[in-house]
Specification:
Strand content: 35-45%
Distance between the termini: 76 Å
Helix content: 10-25%
Radius of gyration: 27 Å
Strand order of the largest sheet: 29-30-32-31-33-34-35-36
Number of strands: 36
Structural class: alpha+beta
Largest sheet: 8 strands, mixed
Shape: globular
Amino acid sequence: MEIQTMHLRHWIAALALLLIPAALCAQPVSFADLAKHVEHGTVKISPDGAYLATTNVVKGQTVLALIRLSDKMESTVRPRDGDDVVNYWWASSGRVLYTVGIRDSQFDEPYSLGEIYAVDADGGNPKMLYGYRMANTAAPERGWAEVIGGIAHDPDHVLVGITPWEKQYPHNLLPVAYRMDVHTGKKIALTAAPIEDAEFVADHQGRIRFAYAEDADERMRVYMLQDDGKSWQFLPQISAQRAVPLAFDADDRVAYFDCPQPAGVSAICTWDAATHRLTPIWSNARVEADGMLRGMARDSLIGISFTDGRPAVALLDNQSADAKALLMLMKQFPGEIVRFVSGSRDGRLSVVLVEADADPGTFYLFDHSAHKLTLLLSRAAWIDPAKMARKQPFEFAARDGLKLKGYLSFPPDQGGGKNLPMVVMVHGGPYGIRDDWGYEPDVQALATRGYLVLQVNFRGSGGRGRAFEHAGWLEWGGKMQDDVTDATRWAIAQGLANPGRICIFGASYGGYAALEGAVKEPDLYQCAIGYAGIYNLQLMFKRGDIPQSKTGRNYLKEVLGTDMNLLAKRSPVNQLDSLKARVMLVVGGADTRAPPVQSLELRKALRKHQMDPVWLFKPREGHGFLGEADNVELYTQLIQFLSANIGPGATPATTAATH
């Protein structure tokens, strides 16, 4: 009997141990984990495969870490003055170049200063190669530099393009390509671009081959450098097609172009140097290419990546060793995106990134000769994909028949559920930007708390060609807004969303769309959340960083128009008589893109209508919160606001609002 009792106690204890993890799994991911900055942004392997370089976030600063693979010895490079590492390149097996940036209130990511620094693979011999803050120089160089590429068989030099800040003889504001010494910074001018704001494309032998840019009338201009290395030949047919050069293959025999087609949205072409003709090798009538797909070796290209709902690849040669290796790895990670992101010169060692809608991403080292995959680094190891919401692509027709695409993120335990409370999340930009299938902390903060999240790529969004993007011009508050409305009603018609429990939320342009949606469709949304938003379109021409330049003013005239009466009618601040939804406003005091005056003016107008908004103001934040603690507070207040308005037992705004 005593033995049986002991067994029973052990069984009860074991059952308790089993129940504890089950209870823990039921808990949603914490806001602190969602707000935490990713630990590793990118990883690149040295040409000889001996070292890794990676960006790490340490106490809020993005630093460069150099890791020797043989013994995992690590050196950390911290930029000066608290700057952040923006990008980096292996110039050779022993030397790394990197650029730095500063945090600016109008950008989500650090803004590059155009300086170039270098350091040895072991962290030694650091040096600033170019920039306005160079010490011990009589005249600091005032320009913006970027690395064009390396030079095969020349580990001591790279190609850089430098655009001066002010007019300088003899090239004025034209970018100039240089060959730069990676140890001393000494540079030799090769050629000046034939047009301002040009991008250079070089082959792997260090020869500049193309330059391209849009002119003042938004016409694409593509040029080929002649054999003399100085004069440029304009390519009229390629320019008229708006085709742009992307890269050369590893042996420089083939140049790849992004070449839009009359009968479709996007294509990738090869270019014939003798005839200057483009030959399509891939095309898609629905979406643009995301880019060329890397292979296992340093400069190899093996296909095209694109996103039609979920990310996909088109391989150039399914029977190549690279293609077979990629397909093998993809089978090991079903439902994930698997890509080679960096490789050694010989292709024996490659860095593989595996990521998904519910997974921030993990880097692996793939040894091709041994067919061995080794874990390297996780971007956010504290995130458990099993607890995250998954994104389901959807497609429907807008009221005018235009096909629109988007994503639905269901609460983790309610995939495919019906009659759910829903948050319509509108992306910013708005032009050329799109919602995609990737991991998003903001989406997870909502979906893991029980809300269906709907994201729609309305007309004007990126990824579907120039015509689709231009279809959104002059449509703030018009057809772009109707697309969001139609997506919301589509979700209701499908039985997915509870029509009495819907909130609209967005940042930047999305903040405008959230409030415009609430005033334009007062019976559709129970609440609206504007985050770093624009609420007075006329004010965009007077306040903020955009109207401070001629380029910015021309942009506003192009996409918003100059009919101030129409812009006033489409401004949420002037339409509050029809508003029924409760409002929350999230504001960064240092925001120069959507300055706080936009939100302050709206709050004042709301108060006149006896509709005081929930107000979250952070004086040091800019156009989107960067601080982890501030984002935890943001997520906490978002969920409190949503719970009060569309959560269980919430009082409908339509009966509570007074005017």
